Model the fold of this input.
Amino acid sequence: MKDLNNLIQDLAPKKFTVLGKVWTGFLILVIIAALVCYYFQLRDGLIITEMRDYALWGVYISNFVFFVAISLVGSLMTAILRLSGANWSTPLTRISEIIAVAAIIMAGLTIIIDMGRPDRILYLFTHGRLQSPIIWDVVVISTYLVISLLLLYYPLLPDFAILKRYFSKNGTASKWYGKLSLNWSGTEQQNKLYNKSIRILSIMIIPVAFGIHTVTAWLFATTYRPGWDSTNFGPYFIAGAFVAGAGAVITIMFFLRKSHGLENYITDAHFDKMGKLLVLLCLLYLYFNVNEYLVPAYKMTVEEGVHLNELFLGQYAALFYLVIVGGLIVPIIVLLSPKGRKPFPVFIMGMIVVLGAWWKRYLIVTPTLLHPFLPIQGVPESWHHYYPSTMEWIITFGTLAGALLIITILVRYVPIIPIHETAEEMGIAETEKN
Amino acid sequence: MEEKNTNPRRKFLDTGLKAGLLTAIGAAAAKAAMNIDKAYSAEEETIELMTPGGTLVEVPVSQVEEIPELKDGDYKVREGFPNRKFVMVVDLARCKNAKKCITACNKTHFITGENAWLKVYKMQESEKSAPYWQPTMCMHCDKPPCVKVCPVDATFKRQDGLVLIDNERCIGCRFCMAACPYSTRVFNWEEPKQGEMTEIYLQMEEMEHMGHEMHSPDYAGLPSLKGTVDKCDFCPHMIDQEELPHCVTACPNGVFFFGDAYEDTVTNGDETFRLSKLLEEKAGYRLLENLGTEPSVYYLPPSDRLVNFEEGLENYTEYESVEKPETPENTEEL
Ligand code: SF4
Ligand code: SF4
Done:
C-alpha cells in the first residue's frame, strides 16, 4: 500500500502554482479580448473580418479544420493504441482525451463564430436537410463530442473514488470527487462493466473519428472548386489530423511533465516512442501530400494550374514551403535519429508540427477561394487578397486560448495520468472487496 | 429618384402576347388562328399573335381568351409559377459593356456594397483569340450545387426553374457561395445601407398590396438582411407583373433575352425568337457545361460582332465595374 500512496501523492491534482495562476489569468484575458471583438462582430456583422465575397471563408474555417484535426488524437491515443495493446501509451491517454474534448468543443464554437446569423443556429436542427455536408458535420461532431466526453469520464471513475479518500481532510473537494465517482467501489461487477464500456467506447470512437474528419474533408471536396476537387481529400485530411494531434500531445505532455514533475511517469522512453510515431505519421501525410499536388501539377489544367502556380511560385509559395519543409520534412529528418528523440527536440518538433498544421489548414482554405472558375473582376482591389484582420486574429486566438483554458482547468482538477490504471499496470492496485 | 420614371417600362404583357409567351394565350391563339371565320367584321379590333409554330397571325380580340393571372390565389413562393421554365439568353455579339444592366439591377434591388448580382467580365479564351464582354448572373442551374449544400433549405429551387434564397432562413454559413462555380452569390457583410428607407418602404407597401411579404424570396433585396446571402433572382416580382426582368429592359443593345423554355420563346422586348431555333442557329452554349450544373442561361457566341470590344473599354475600370446605388451617405457627398 505504500507504493500506492506514493503514486496517489504524485498524481493527485495539485493547486495552481504562481506560474499556473499567471498562465490561467493570461488565457482569460485573451478570451475576454476575443469576446469583446466578437461583440463587435455581432453588432457590425462579418465586415470586421477581411473576408469578402471571394475569400468567403478565412481564418475561422481554417481554425475549425485545425481543431477538428487536433481532436482526432483522442481516438488515436486512447482507442487505436489501447486496442492494439500498446500499454506504453497509458500515461498519455488522459492527456489526449482532454485535448480531444477541448478541441472538439472549440471546433463547434468556431463554426458558430463563422456564421453570419448565429441567432439562427437552431435552424440547423429544425430545418436541417441531410443532403448538406454541413448537417453531416453537425451530426458527427456532436456524436464525437459525446463519445469523447464519455471516454474521458469513464476511466476517471475509479480515480475519482481514490481522490475522494485522498482529499478526506478537505470536505468540499472530497464531496465533489465522491459525487463524480458515481459511488465507484471497485467491485468485480463494476470492474467488468467498466472494462467492457471502455472497450465498446474505444471501438465506437474510431469510425466516428474517421467520419468527422472525412466529412470535414468532404465539406470542401463536394464543391466545384479547383484545389478542393480531389478524391484524395478524405485520407489526406485524416493523415494530417493524426500528425497535428500527435504533435499536440507531445507539446502538452512536455509542459505537464515539467510543471507537475512527472518525470517518473512520462519518461524519455515515451518521448522516444511518440517521436517514432510522429515520424511514421509525418511520412504518411507526406505521401498524401505528394498525391494531392503531384497529380494535378503534372496535368496542369487551366484552373488547377492557376491555383498550383500561386502555391508553388506565387504569393503563397513562402508559406507553402515553410509548411511542407518546416512542418513535415524537417521533423522527419530530426526524429529519425535517436538523438532527435530526446524529450526536448521531440517537443520542439511537436510544436512546429502543430504550427505547420495550423498554417496548412489556412493554405487549404484560402487560395482555392481566391481562384474561382470565372476571373475575379469588377470588385475592389482588396477583395483579390485575403489576410485576417486584427479582430479576426484576436477572436481566433480567443478560441485557441479557450481550448487551452479547458485543458488547464481539467488538468487542475483531474489526475493527468490515470491513477487506477497505472496502479493496475504496476501491480499495486488496491483490491477492495465490498 | 423615382425608379419607375427612369426605367423604361415595356409591358411584358404586350410582348408576351406577341411572343405567345403565356401558355394560355398561346393555346387560345392557335385555336383562334385555326377557327378564324370570315364572320368578323372589318371594324373589329385585331391583335397580332404568334402561333406555337412561329408564324404571326392577326386575330380579332374577341377570339382571344383572357388568361388567368400568372399567380393565382394559392401561389406558393417556394413552389413558383406552374408550367413555366424560365430561361435567359445572352447574346455576347451585342454586348459592349454599357453596364446599364448593372445599374438597373443594383438600383431596383437596392444592392449595396461593392458587389453586384450581375457582372460583366472581360473575357479572352486565349492570347490569340479576340476578347469579348460577358455578362453573368445567377444561372438558375437545374442541378444547382448551391441548393445541394445549403444546410437549412434557405436556398431552394422552384418548379419554374428559379433558384431563390429565403433570407429569413439563411444562417449565413456561406457554403452555397463556396459551392457556386459561377461566383454569383453575394453576402451582406454588414447592415445594408439601402438608400432612402422611405422609398424601400413605399415599394414594400406596394409589394404587400400584391401579396408579397417582407423579405420575400420573391423580391430579394427589399430590403437585404445583414448576415445573409443574396443573388440574382430573375426578377420574379417583375414576371409576376408580366414584365421583363430589369436587366433585359435596361440594356440598350438588346443583349438579354428572357422567356419560357416550355413556350420555346425568348424576347428582349423588341425582338422575339424561338429559343430552340436561336440556340441551334447561333450555336448557343452554357457556361462551364462540363460541371453538370445545367444552367438556365444560354450564351450566343461573340461571333459576327455588332459592336467593337474597344468601345466597352471606356466603361471599364478594373476595380469598380460596379456602380453603387444611391445611399444616404454617398448622396450627401454629392
Ligand atoms: S449559378 Fe450559382 S447561385 Fe445560381 S443556381 Fe447555379 S450554383 Fe446556384
Ligand atoms: S449561406 Fe444561407 S443560403 Fe447559403 S448555404 Fe448557408 S444557409 Fe444556405
Chain B touches chain A through 48 residues (CB under 8 Å). The pocket of iron/sulfur cluster (ligand 2) is lined by residues B 149-152, 154-155, 165, 170-176, 229 (CB under 6 Å). The two ends of chain B are 14 Å apart (CA to CA).
